[in-house]
Write a structure and sequence with these properties.
372 residues, 13 strands, globular
Amino acid sequence: MKIANFGVEEWLNVWENDAIYDIAGSSIASFTLEEIISIDGTDPKEFFENLFKVKMNYGWIEGSPEFKQEVSKLYRNISPENILQTNGATGANLLALYALIEPGDHVIAMHPSYQQLFDIPRSLGADVTLWEINEEQEWMPDIEELKAMIRPNTKMICLNNANNPTGTVLDDDVLKQIVTIAKEVDAYIVVDEVYKPLDPTVQVSSIVDLYDKGIATNSLSKTFSVPGVRVGWTASNREVADIFRKYRDYTMICAGVIDDIIAVHTLKNKEAVLKRNREIVFRNLEILQEWVANEPRVSLVFPKAVSTSFIKLDIPIDVEEFCIDLLKTKGVLLVPGNRFDVPKHARLGYCTHTETLKKGLAALSDYLRQFD
């Protein structure tokens, strides 16, 4: 099987440990272990003393009953038995694509987007059509273009909602139009939903609550700020979940016992987690908006309270060269846009810790002055 290098992950693997100001990521400022355990008043010492008694066996293969129950509460119509635990959302995406895509299938994938959603289908022998989003339309897709792309053998439409790297949100009106198109050919819709919009005025349902052949993938890494547990999941109807069970046995036996326990604790306290993260998103978004307004070499279609943004840079050099030199001279880490097939742009993760954002933006502005 041949597959392209994973642009974003390859970049971060090489460069992220060199950063002083990491404003490349797309998670909302990660909790420390102590912070997430104590978020509801739990004594961390007592919590871990109880863990000492837990057997380090395989635990619950599909995720504990408590985990499946808590995840099911995120949806309107999904029962716990149709939740399958995975190794992060990357594991969930892999499972969905590996289980359903065969050589010769037609797949439509939003682009730019998370690279798994188009390059894994390609590697499995699918014919992939990229549904391009562009800055001139504020990174929103054109429904008429999707209608023209659909074929009798379209097996799946792959979306990232909200979108990585742009922060674009497909609201319920857009999602329902996509569902209508998918129904015409009985296609699945897989949506990577790791970026939950934290603006309460934005109505975005999970695809599994809008469409029976919808498949939601998600994790605790982005909106819930606990990427270190590496726990994700798929949510689907029963028929699809049973297909996934077979393929899951080849890709993942189980998550760690301790990871499951921390995941359950996080999900049980999701309201406190989201309250904390909503404050970070809106505070940092205001800082980013002010910075862009005063930075002549940067423009941005602002995200709707989503933790990732995609700045456009007015620079006379290649964006990857720019990002490498920026990191080496100023310690500021961005992800160059060419890693998403979009030159002259960069992913800026503004939902890092606020002081890191402020210092990183100041250093970035200082670096940009050489081009004036």
